[in-house]
Amino acid sequence: MTIRVLRDRRILLGVTGGVAAYKTAFLASRLTQARAIVDVVMTEAATRFVAPLTFQAVTRRAAYTDMFELPAEGSSGDVQIPHIALAKSADLLLIAPATGNTLAKLAHGLADNLLTAIALAAPAPLLIAPAMESDMWAHPATQANVATLRERGATFVGPAAGHLASGAEGVGRMSEPEEVLEMTRVVLGRDGDLAGRRVVVSAGGTREAIDPVRFISNHSSGKMGYALALAARDRGARVTLVAGPTCLADPVGVETARVESALDMRDAVLSACDGADALVMAAAVADYRPIQTAAQKIKKTDDQLTLQLSRTPDILAEVARLREAGGGPKVVVGFAAETQDLLANAREKLQRKGLDLIAANDVSATDAGFGVDTNRVTLLAADGGIESLPLLSKEEVAHEIWDRVIQHFYSSLL
Question: 3-state DSSP call for residue 11?
Answer without folding.
Answer: strand
